[in-house]
Amino acid sequence: MIVYGSTLSPFVRKVMAYLAEKGLSAELKPSGMGRGGPEFEEASPFGKMPAFRDPGADNGHDFVISDSTAIITYLEAKHPEPAMIPADPANRARTIWFEEFGDTMVAATGGKVFFNRIVAPKFMKVPGDEAAAQGAVETEMPRLFDYLERTIPDSGFLVGDRMSLADISVASPFVNYAHCQVGPNAARWPRTVAYLDAILARPSFATMIEGERQMVAALG
Ligand SMILES: N[C@@H](CCC(=O)N[C@@H](CS)C(=O)NCC(=O)O)C(=O)O
């Protein structure tokens, strides 16, 4: 299997952590932002990462698809164990809620900081919109952290007292926060900080994060 993209994207990181938690592996091919060529373009019609290829899996043809949610839906159907999306109806719905919360609210808010402080100045060599980044930090982030602080269960897992796609999806974008040195502080949001530290210390995330830190540091 091939995943196209860079783990600096919270959505690519989400798919790679998911694969690791499932005990599956895939080759990560650097793609997006001008890289990847026709192979990537075939799998991602709008050039977004992640994209995915399962060679020969579609009646002998490659199965290709993009979008982290679509990729994980495919993988979960093909490899049901260990389940990362619970079967119980309420827990399944809660998992998808947290996936959506992670993808749209946590990642979108973090993206305003990551894009304007790292992607624009360091990759695209254009100035970022610092007012937009600072606005996200001051006005949008505290609401997200307050919600997590009152929601994270004592078990340390968001759904069903065990690791699921909910934890992967919510924790993944916080790595981008950390790359920008923003995020919840332990004095005001202790539960959230402890929760994120524990999820992101898992082997499914830890090695990837170390590689990313080196990548970001090399950008200067
Ligand atoms: N909903 C998509 C979001 C994918 C997405 O927005 N990826 C960004 C990187 S974080 C991207 O490829 N941006 C480049 C572009 O839009 O051209 C998913 O879950 O995979």
Automatic annotation (TrEMBL):
Q: Name one Pfam family in it.
A: GST_N_3
PROSITE patterns reported for this sequence: GST_CTER, GST_NTER
List UniProt keywords, sorted A-Z.
Answer: Transferase
**InterPro entries per the record?**
Glutathione-S-Trfase_C-like, Glutathione-S-Trfase_C_sf, Glutathione_S-Trfase, Glutathione_S-Trfase_N, GST_C, Thioredoxin-like_sf
Name the Gene Ontology molecular function terms of this record: transferase activity
Q: Which CDD domains match?
A: GST_C_family, GST_N_family
The residue ranges of the GST C-terminal domain are 88-219
Q: Which residues form the GST N-terminal domain?
A: 1-83
* Protein name (record): Glutathione S-transferase family protein
